[in-house]
Amino acid sequence: MLDQQTKQQLKEKFPQLKSQIKQRFPALSDDDLDSTQGDADQLCSKIEQKTGQQRDQVEQTLKQLVSSS
Predict the structure, then answer these.
(1) Spatial contact of 42 and 56, defined as CB atoms under 8 Å apart
(2) Residue 16's closest CA among 43, 38, 41, 31?
(3) Pair 32, 49: CB distance under 8 Å
């Protein structure tokens, strides 16, 4: 599960991270990303739904993206 700090950073950095998220999860459309508005829970659910990946894998990837930005 993503901690509050990571969720907040994801929301704040979302405009910069969108292209990286889309690169990691090519099944996502721009509309998919825009609809989440950087909300971590919505984003994880959308990625799970579109890719079939487990939530913990999705969260780990997002955590890496946030920490490397």
Answers:
(1) no
(2) 38
(3) no
Residue extents of the structural domains in the chain: 4-68
Structure tokens at 25: 């999860």
Instruction: Identify the CATH class of 4-68.
Output: mainly alpha
C-alpha distances in angstroms, 15 versus 1, 48, 52? 22, 21, 24
CB 60 within 8 A of CB 12: no
Q: What is the pLDDT of residues 4-51, one digit of tens each?
A: 999 999 999 999 999 999 999 999 999 999 999 999 999 999 999 999
Residue with tokens 């971590």: 40
pTM: predicted TM-score of the whole model, two decimal places: 0.93
